[in-house]
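Hey,
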Amino acid sequence: MEALLPSPEQQVRTRPFLPASFLLTALAFGLAGCGSSGGGSYTLAPTQKCLDKAGLAATRDKNTVLKGSGGNLHVLFGYGSPEVYVVFGKDAGEATAIENRAVSETERHEGIKRSVILAGVQKLKNVFFYSNFGPLTGIERTKIEACLH
């Protein structure tokens, strides 16, 4: 079975899973989920194209810890702004499984309550996304959600 968290060697080469700074900011500020309506699934390519067109830098991400069958994106909002990681599952069930894995591992390794962690992440249809700098602002959340296609 594949290890859930990267080995110490991999951690040197990759970003942290969901760092404590993210969780502490989530604890301080919280983040309400927006939900989703309607059917269909979001896909990586049109979402990436929209994000790039909106002036954000969206690149494919090789996240081995939270790997979605539909791929992963790393989105940069600019200097000093959050980095957002978008994980595409094949359906809402896979997105929920990814969310549960992320939350459980973060809860286990960081000792933060599940409710606090859930306040700082987002799941819409088949997509799970989070920031490693803390909860997204309303503007950043709106930009991501507007480009989910």
